[in-house]
Each structure stands twice: as C-alpha cells, then as structure tokens.
Amino acid sequence: MADNRPIGIFDSGLGGLTVVREIIKILPNEDLVYLGDTARVPYGTRSKETIIKFSFEDAEFLLTKNVKCIIIACNTASSVAASVLKKELDVPVFDVIGPALRDARMISGNGKIGMIGTRATVASGAYKDTFGIACPLLVPFIEEGEINSGALELVVKNYLKGFEKTKIKALILGCTHYPIIEELIRRVIGGGIKLVNPEKSVSIATKKYLIEHKMLSDKQGQGRRTYFVTDLTDRFKSVAEMFLGHSINGYLKKVIIG
Amino acid sequence: MADNRPIGIFDSGLGGLTVVREIIKILPNEDLVYLGDTARVPYGTRSKETIIKFSFEDAEFLLTKNVKCIIIACNTASSVAASVLKKELDVPVFDVIGPALRDARMISGNGKIGMIGTRATVASGAYKDTFGIACPLLVPFIEEGEINSGALELVVKNYLKGFEKTKIKALILGCTHYPIIEELIRRVIGGGIKLVNPEKSVSIATKKYLIEHKMLSDKQGQGRRTYFVTDLTDRFKSVAEMFLGHSINGYLKKVIIG
Fold first, then answer.
1. Peptide bond into B42 cis (omega under 30)
2. Is ipTM over 0.95?
3. A39 and B50 in contact by Cβ < 8 A?
C-alpha cells in the first residue's frame, strides 16, 4: 500500500523552506507542495484571530493541490492555529512544536528547557514548560543576509543574556529562520547546552507517521517539488535559495489566496 | 466656502502616524481618518504589483469614510502607487515624496541630496536625482522600541558609511519611522548636513492646497480623529502611541479590508 499524493507544507514566508530541506533529506522521493504566504509575512506580530484566518487560507490552498498531509512549518502558526486546523481538516496535520518538545525533553532529561522565537510564539505558551525569550530582531537580520555582522552578535548576546539566571540544558530554536545562524547561537549560548531544531524533529515525526499508516509514496526517483508564494520578488528568490540551500530557479510560482 | 469632510491618511502600518502628528500641529481643527494596514505591514519588501493592489484597497476604504483628500503617508506606497492613485481617484491625492524633494532642493541649493529608506522606496527611484541607500533594518529596531541600543548605532553607522564618498548637503528621511531616531541619524551623519522630514513637507503642502482650493474646515475646536487598523494587538497600541506622541486608548478600531 502506498499514497503517492504530495506532502503539503506551508509557512508565513520562506523560513519554512528549512523544513523542506529536512524533508528532502529523509524522504527524497516524496512529492512536495510548498506555500509561502510572502504577501502577508510576517505572522509573528499579528493577532491570534488574524493568524488563524491566514493559516486556514494557506491550508485550504494546499488541499486544492490534493495533499495527503499538511506540515505547518511556521512556529507562529503552529502555536496559534495548529489545534484548530487539526480539528477542522480531513488530512493529518503536523506542527513544528510537539515533536521539538518531545526531542527537547529526551535530550534534557530532567533539566530545564529554553526556547527562543517570535513574540507571538513565546506569548502563545505553546512550547509548554519551557523558558521562552522573544527575539524579534533575528528574523530581519537573517532575511537581510546580515548574518555575520557585529550588530547581530550584539543583538543575540543581548537576547540570550536572559538565560544566564536559568540553568537550561537544551535550547529550542523556535523559529524556522534560526538554523541559519545556529553556529552563532551555539557560540554565544555555550556551556554545553544542546540545541533542538524543530525542522528536524517534525520531519522525522512526519516520516514515522507516514510509515506507520502506510502512506509513503512508492514512486521511484526524486520527488516533484512545487513552490508557491503569494508574492514574488527577485529578493524572495535569493532568500528562498539561502533557506533551501540550492537553486529553485523556475520552480517558484505566484498564487493569490485570501 | 469650507469643506468639513475629513482628511484621509493611510499607511502600510503605524509609521504614518508621524504624518498625523504633523497634520494635527498645523491643522488642529480638521477631522482626520487614518488607516494603518497592520495585517499586511510591511509593504517595503513586497512586489510593485502587490503594493499597488494594497494601496487601492486602502484608498477605497478611506473613500467610504467620505474623505475630501487622501495623504499617502507611506514612502513605499508613495513611490510605487501614487501616480496610479492620482489618476484613478476623484479626490486630491498627496504623497510624501514630491513635497520632500522640493524642500530638499531648496535647502541644498545646487548641492547633492542623499536619501535613506526601505529597499522598495530606494529601488523605485521615486526620489529623483538623490543618492539613495536602503536601510531595511531600521524599521524593525524602531518598531521594537530598541532605539537607544548599541546595536542600532552600529547598524546606522554601517548604512550611512555609504555617504562618505558622496558629499551631500541634505538627507531625506525617506521612511515614516525615521523621525523617531532623527537625533541618532543627525549625530552619525554629522558635518552640517540638513535632514529633511517628508512628514512635515507633505503636511505643509496639504495645508497650502486646502487653503488655495478653499477646502479647509470651518469647524471650531479640536478635530475628530479616527484611527482604523486592519489588525489590532496590544503591542500595536503602544507602538501607535510612540509614533503619535500621545495616548489613543479607545480610538483604535479594527476593520477588515482586501
């Protein structure tokens, strides 16, 4: 038994492509449909109500592409809209939070878990029993490609200072952008604290589910990957390639939703 | 003769409230209707096509409030969508660019004019014959209220370095947020370079037009000011008050457009 429909993945923008990168690594022959809501990015500063509305519109678009499951590759949308989407949609829905939390608990034993993310993700409390610090300036720096600047290092140091008092054993990178500056974060936080990458966690959880439910594709060769965005600029293309780690020239299409 | 309809002002978010602040100073008895498209802010990173679509939707909302004129208080929308709006709408449309350019030319004499703004504003070339530098990280810092941080100073120094080779006489603050850090910019740029604030320029130009066309209000006392946003969070309220310089508790209403 097999299910050859594509896996659907959405994000508020292009950060979710770090999930696509992980999925491609461990499920190379699966077809993928990605939607980045670049016309309305970022979700992290918006109200709960608006984030839920946008997330539904994103998921509905993916369903028109006949996806077999949906990965919410956005921490903000996962924290605010995942429970509603899981209840309302007819396909399995995965979010980046649950799997990351399970991995962090395993790694940290009984130790404390730290988390960094957008203001909305931290405020949602979705990363339960973690010590969260909102780092709203990291996304703009990363999207500008300013990842080696002294100013970014100052900003990161300033944010992570908040963990000095709380002895944490693991730190969840609670925003899809952060793996891009994982080395800088590791250097600043130091002290043998283990970093948890939710993009890896959700990809492994999705693979496990598809195996257990006999929903893997049995197609041979490299899967077909289609990337949709709600707004397209030259800049988005280069940012997309930074996240994905390879060129997608000609594979990025614009759609209007909402 | 008088025209007691309100003045309409729109912006991609809350930065345009720096225009409201100037209008209130010089036209205190005019009624105002402000729309901030906070559900879709920022416009500065989006495509031309999308910015024009959003700007039309903003203007159409203001027209339902029976405004006598419209001020585009957003540099990005002014640079990309002003000419289309001026052609298509039945009320006078003012943008922040023309008046600022005229003021900068007067101040600089025959000297060169510098401009800083978002990526989209600079790329549009709308500030004609100026030397533009895109400063995309300034808006996130200002919206986070991180206006006294060492990291911001580093970022500003780094951007303004670009003016070292070109001897400019005046610098246009080509983004509604920048007046908030005017003192920092003045300190870093130094050298007797005069700063031009487009919010002041457009307010004076609007007043002049209304006088010449006998369209001023003849109402007595303080005008009625109504603020609409397309998304509302507690944070937006405090950011709005930072831009406006006074409390608007109870005057911020949410509307859905687009």
1. yes
2. no
3. yes
Output the domain CATH number for residue B183.
3.40.50.1860
Tell me whether residues A46 and B231 touch, CB distance under 8 A: yes
Exactly one of B27, B152, B156, B175 is catalytic; which is it?
Answer: B175
Q: What is the pTM of this model?
A: 0.86
- Residue-wise pLDDT tens digits, A102-161: 999 999 998 999 999 988 889 889 999 999 999 999 999 998 889 999 999 999 999 999
Alpha-carbon torsion A141, B133, A13, B148, what sign?
Answer: positive
Residues B149, A154: C-beta atoms closer than 8 Å: yes
Angstrom distance (rounded) from CA B142 to CA B68: 32
Domain boundary residue among A174, A198, A222?
Answer: A198
What was the pLDDT predicted at B119?
A: 86
**Spatial distance between the Cα atoms of B163 and B189, rounded to a whole number of angstroms:** 8
Nearest CA to B98 out of B117, B71, B120, B116 is that of B71
Question: For residue range B215-244, what is the model confidence (pLDDT) as tens digits?
Answer: 999 999 999 999 999 998 878 888 888 898
**List of E strands, chain A:** 7-11, 32-36, 69-72, 93-95, 112-117, 131-134, 168-174, 194-196, 225-229, 252-254
Is A135 marked active-site?
no
Neighbours of A129 (CB within 10 A): 11
**B186 shares a domain with B108:** yes
Active site residue B175: yes
Residue B72: phi and psi, rounded to 5, are -85, 105
Q: Within a domain: residue B180?
A: yes
Q: What is the C-alpha separation between B45 and B120, in angstroms, rounded?
A: 6
